UniProtKB/TrEMBL annotation, chains A, B:
This is Pyridoxal-phosphate dependent enzyme. PANTHER family: SERINE / THREONINE RACEMASE FAMILY MEMBER, SERINE RACEMASE. Keywords: Lyase, Magnesium, Pyridoxal phosphate. Gene3D superfamilies: 3.40.50.1100. Belongs to the serine/threonine dehydratase family. It comes from the Bacteria. GO terms for molecular function: ATP binding; L-serine ammonia-lyase activity; magnesium ion binding; pyridoxal phosphate binding; serine racemase activity; threonine racemase activity. The lineage of its organism: Bacteria, Pseudomonadati, Pseudomonadota, Gammaproteobacteria, Cellvibrionales.
Amino acid sequence: MNRRESNSATTAPTLADIEAAAARIAGYVHRTPVLTSHRLDEWCTATLAFKCENLQKVGAFKARGASNAVLGLDDAAASRGVATHSSGNHGAALAMAAQRRGIPAHIVMPANAPAVKKAAVESYGAFIIECEPTLVAREETLVRVVSETGAEVVHPYDDARVIAGQGTVALELLEQVPELDVVVVPVGGGGLLAGVATAVKALKPSVEVVAAEPAGADDAFRSFGLGERQPQTNPQTIADGLRTSLGELNFPIIQRCVDTIVTVEEESIVKAMRLQWTRLKTVVEPSGAVSFAALLEHPERFRDRRVGVVISGGNVDLDHLPW
Amino acid sequence: MNRRESNSATTAPTLADIEAAAARIAGYVHRTPVLTSHRLDEWCTATLAFKCENLQKVGAFKARGASNAVLGLDDAAASRGVATHSSGNHGAALAMAAQRRGIPAHIVMPANAPAVKKAAVESYGAFIIECEPTLVAREETLVRVVSETGAEVVHPYDDARVIAGQGTVALELLEQVPELDVVVVPVGGGGLLAGVATAVKALKPSVEVVAAEPAGADDAFRSFGLGERQPQTNPQTIADGLRTSLGELNFPIIQRCVDTIVTVEEESIVKAMRLQWTRLKTVVEPSGAVSFAALLEHPERFRDRRVGVVISGGNVDLDHLPW
């Protein structure tokens, strides 16, 4: 291996970084299974391989990037702990990774975050710092926490270590299903998409990478079309994990490695989610169903092709299902 | 391989029969994944490996036994087709297997069977013969269908070919998780239990086999205790797949190869089902959750042990969830 491995948070990761991440996090995260369904293949007139990151630790691919960031710290930095602001899966993932390494995690959360999300973070022994539910308050609070603790900030997606970790999804998928024509990935902040696209284009450049985004939070679609990063304001989608804006580090990677971004309507997301529950028997959250929704909404694009469909997560409130 | 393989429907299957079944059905059914959860391990103070037959074709282990029976027929018998009476997963499984072999399947179903269950059977191209919703009417109708068609009857559990097929669950589980102390299996008619117990005791006699049964349909528990097969009358359980009585061929196998049968309350079944949905992100039907319910209700029996937990199926109506 003579490709250089970078450990920077701010330089786009290479295949070597993703391979190093895979070695680093092995044993800390699950190698998730790939599920298939003859019925869904018939439905879509395509051959589908669902990569189930909803079966990942903490119920989402976020466990990969967070683990890679935490495990890659040197001992001195690690001893000061890690910090982030998050109301979602990344907070729990970072708390989980920090607990495994035995270092402190400081998670800034809005005071109005759901009790179950706080409980998830607390269950991994992290410190929760509450703040007002605005982005400014979250960022200011995080700066204060870092100045007090010296903790290393691990951003949920705009961080090369996190992107490299998420890219390990693609290493596994290409091993598990060597013959693919196209891979479909949901896009929110772009951590998963940038990592997967980097790995796919390095290993199998002929495989098309398609990103799927809710039409009601289509900043990546617009940014990609305009060639300039557009912010997401007032997102309107059930896919709560995809309401964020594309990251600064993520965007040029996506420009370079992604072939297309397609949008999907809300009703397609719910339909895809329910089909995955009933046919694949797997619990998928709305954000996680956006990739399959792209197949339902744009069938002509995928007809008679071998499609890797990344299911990104499965954290959903069973008492509030969208049907 | 010098162990004799039997192809009889009425002689208890041997390990050789189960191994032959595995070879026969390979490529026709899924090798289902094993899922693990650190959280559920902590919860139970045990090391759990969930064998996910809810991810099997047609959503249940029934695909194995039905496929083994259909694929094992000689061409002359196969050409006359197969028949059964079923209002559940076995009917769909037999229809699926027959369709794969290109032979007719005749499924006797009560006229009041849910439309979705009829649609599932029809979707595999089977003939549905409706009858009054009584066991007598079902059996009489099946006799008539067989006399008219010459089809081979494949009983849902009281059939050695079916038992051998279901036993392939254990071959896979013991390969996937070689170090187990105990295997927990739901019991209804006893096809899955007899097959799994036969394989486990032949391959690893030191592994304990525990059957789990709803307290409201405890004929296997009572039969096992009394040493004589007791019928199930008026079953009261949400676990609709386990309301049936233990089969005639199944009972002596269970007496010989099963170590214990435990019963579980309804609230444990619902709790287990919901925990598997939320923690394992996998859609489990009530019958499929009975094995994990045994761990929740009898924790002392499993403490600090390595436990294989068979999830038997995942066919559930998402519009009528028990919470």
